[in-house]
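Subject: design request, 255 residues
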């Protein structure tokens, strides 16, 4: 049904893991395992690993992404990296607004929006993360929050630019905890995101946007999650650091 309109995307988020040499080794291990996948395969890696990752992925179906991007093109922003710097290297994707950035580095809905606009303007594909904390869920704010975060992130994003947007629903309580959302909770969260997109861009457009689930997705639970109507892929942390596990998830998304 509508799921067929959308491209399944499995993206690894390596976080602060792997040296350049380790990155190349892991990608070389993954390449044969994910070859021929019927979904997009992306690895978002630390900035310093990008050249080695691009080189290792050359000629394969693995695309390389960054884990963040600044909203200015250049200037006095010590420690930051611009969208142009990423595209100059050959990077195609970037993760924006991951909950770890929001939690530890002062990322707000507004900066997530600015980073998204800069990435899209530069031609990058933006994987924008949204998600509720356990407290917000228990208070009953999940739908309100997911819709708010989604709309805030997409402020001033055009319908045309939306084609390069992936939203990742990542419940904060499920990230790196080993506690996965149930298939139903993931589907419901992803649906809230899609509803928010529909409220701004119309239902037809919303049906075409890839919405991923992320949060302890692994080789065992991926199939059930990815079978759900609104789950069009995954943003994978821990399991993307293991070639065998990651390839099982890619295969589950390729069915
Ligand atoms: P996890 O991380 O798969 O290790 O829970 C997901 C993410 O943070 O994107």
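Subject: RE: design request

Done. Sequence follows.
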């Amino acid at each position: 049904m509508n799921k067929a309109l959308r491209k399944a995307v499995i993206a690894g988020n390596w976080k602060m893991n792997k040296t350049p040499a380790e990155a190349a080794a892991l990608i070389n291990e993954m390449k044969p395992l994910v070859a021929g996948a019927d979904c997009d395969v992306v690895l978002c890696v630390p900035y310093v690993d990008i050249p080695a990752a691009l080189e290792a992925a050359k000629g394969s179906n693995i695309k390389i992404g960054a884990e963040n991007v600044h909203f200015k093109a250049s200037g006095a922003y010590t420690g930051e990296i611009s969208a142009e710097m990423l595209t100059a290297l050959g990077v195609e994707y970037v993760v924006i607004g991951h909950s770890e950035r929001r939690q530890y580095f002062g990322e707000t809905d507004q900066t997530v929006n600015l980073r998204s606009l800069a990435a899209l303007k530069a031609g990058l594909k933006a994987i924008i993360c949204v998600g509720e904390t356990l407290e917000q869920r228990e208070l009953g704010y999940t739908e309100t929050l997911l819709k708010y975060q989604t709309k805030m992130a997409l402020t001033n994003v055009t319908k045309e630019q939306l084609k390069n947007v992936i939203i990742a629903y990542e419940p904060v309580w499920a990230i790196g905890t080993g506690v996965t959302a149930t298939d139903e909770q993931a589907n419901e969260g992803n649906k809230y995101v899609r509803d928010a997109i529909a409220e701004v861009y119309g239902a037809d457009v919303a049906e075409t946007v890839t919405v991923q689930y992320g949060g302890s997705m692994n080789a065992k639970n991926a199939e059930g999650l990815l079978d759900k109507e609104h789950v069009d892929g995954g943003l994978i942390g821990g399991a993307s650091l293991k070639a065998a596990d990651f390839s099982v998830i890619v295969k589950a998304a390729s069915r």
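The radius of gyration is 17 Å.
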